Amino acid sequence: MNETPSRPRAEIDLAALRANVRALRARAPRSAFMAVVKADAYGHGMVPCARAAKEAGADWLGVATPGEALALRAAGLEGPLMCWLWTPGGPWRQGIEAELDMSVSAIWALDEVTAAAREAGRAARIQLKADTGLGRSGCQPADWPELVEEALRAEAEGLVLVTGLWSHFACADEPGHPSIALQLDRFREMTAYAEERGVRPEVRHIANSPATLTLPESHFDLVRPGIAMYGVSPSAEIGVPADFGLRPVMTLAAPLALVKDVPAGHGVSYGHQYVTQGRTTLGLVPLGYGDGVPRHASGTGPVLVAGKPRTVAGRIAMDQFVVDLGGDEPPVGSEAVLFGPGDKGEPTAEDWARAAGTIAYEIVTRVGARVERVHLGETPPPGE
Ligand SMILES: *Cc1c(COP(=O)(O)O)cnc(C)c1O
After folding, report:
1. Ligand 1 center to residue 258 CA distance, Å?
2. Cα separation of 44 and 60, whole Å?
3. 383: pLDDT confidence band, cut at 50, 70 and 90?
4. What family does this belong to (predicted)?
5. Is 200 annotated as a binding residue?
6. Ligand 1 within 6 A of CB of 168
7. Does 260 qualify as catalytic in the annotation?
8. Mean pLDDT over residues 324-333, rounded?
9. Residue 330 per-residue DSSP state
């Protein structure tokens, strides 16, 4: 036999990612585009996805942690790069030297970043974050005047450059939710205040994926989509990816590791939560919760096995789970597809989210480090 060995893997269709970036950019034609590639690009592989997004016209990259941002720089990604989740100790100095746009929500962070700028002998690029209602990070309206004044003072001393004013939505995935209009009003007020006091931002931004897809008035100078770029819908209320010309980027699949006959009344997997009704065949899928397959989908997760829709039988274990093949005997090594674009009959990440009682963001993002990422459609570096 001379076949390519198949193994558990997440195939990442970079051509689909590029097309998704172009489709999203077309929805916000007057705004710059920040490709959000935090959390290993929602499980899709940070560096290849960042490169592909930039090839398709993304102007900015966005991540949560300084570690993520510095890893992008170490991999050679240049250009505007924003990083928003800082804790005491930074590393602010490295952030300044890597020319990151660093989010500041509070005076403690402004103090630390200005001290680092003094040491470095150069200005830090900072973006002031307003809490317009999310109630997570960002500066409360009552504390905003002080943060703006202190930032302007540091700017006058040449320690910082305030490059952006920004915020984040709480309920943009529920179109029409009353908090959306309230947050937009507050964002306009808080940015107007800062600009009246003398802040000259390069960019003002608040739109995540659902807002990029459904709320043009939220696009301002820049949009910041994450999940939609990976071809996954932010919520059922927003719609399915195809409604917006988006295509899922990740396919999670594995070869069957075993196919066997079992008698009626046979318990399957830990706890015997599934018992065979009659004589049947079982297929073993070598992926489990150690690979990010949610254990909450035990007994409910959908899988396409050798072209037929099946359901997880019994508990999902750390490394593997079982499907009842109902007497079929596909050869060992046959493909089990957990999710993908859906056009060959395979389930989608949204289907798994429903089966596990979670959101599709979590399904793709939690695919574990043990699962090989196979990036398809990578552009070779120049000279190769
Ligand atoms: C994750 C994140 C985004 C992207 O959100 P999506 O819903 O995936 O588009 C944008 N902005 C911030 C601050 C984020 O944390």
Report:
1. 40
2. 18
3. low
4. Belongs to the alanine racemase family.
5. no
6. yes
7. no
8. 98
9. P
26, part of any domain: no
Mean confidence (pLDDT) of the chain: 96
Please count the structural domains in the chain: 2
List the structure tokens of 217.
């008035």
User: pLDDT tens digits for 4-31?
Assistant: 568 999 999 999 999 999 999 999 999 9
289 is catalytic: no
Render pLDDT for 43-64 as a digit per residue (tens, 0 to 9): 999 999 999 999 999 999 999 9
Q: Is 82 annotated as a binding residue?
A: no
Name the active-site residue from 260, 270, 308, 344. Answer: 270
pTM recorded for the entire structure: 0.96
> Is residue 181 domain-shared with residue 293, that is, in the same domain?
no
- Record the tokens describing residue 329, joined without a space: 């005997």
Distance 208 CA to ligand 1 centre (A): 5
Q: Which of 20, 60, 4, 33 is nearest to 250 (CA)?
A: 20
DSSP codes of every residue in 63-104? ESSHHHHHHHHHTT--S-EEE---BTTB-HHHHHHTT-EEEE
Task: Provide the percentage of residues in the chain whose pLDDT is more than 70.
Answer: 98
Pocket test for ligand 1, best of 49, 203, 224 (most atoms within 8 A of CB): 224
Please state the atom number of ligand 1 nearest to the C-alpha of residue 229.
Answer: 9
Any atom of ligand 1 within 6 Å of the Cβ of 82:
no
Judge if 280 and 131 occupy the same domain. no
End residue of a domain, out of 195, 230, 265:
230
At 195, is the pLDDT very low, low, confident or very high (cuts 50, 70, 90)? very high
Strand order in the sheet with 335-339: 258-262, 280-285, 321-324, 308-313, 302-305, 335-339, 250-255, 9-13, 372-376
pLDDT score recorded for residue 6: 85
**Residue 263: is its pLDDT beyond 60?**
yes
Both tokens of 17, joined, read 């990612």
Question: Closest Cα to atom 1, ligand 1: which residue?
Answer: 226
Residue 208 beta carbon below 6 angstroms from any ligand 1 atom: yes
205 lines ligand 1 (CB under 6 A): no
Q: Supply the CATH number for residue 354's domain.
A: 2.40.37.10
Using a 10 angstrom Cβ sphere, with 0-12 exposed, 13-18 middle and 19 or more buried, the burial of residue 183 is buried
Residues 179 and 139 in one domain: yes
103 within ligand 1 shell (Cβ under 6 A)? no
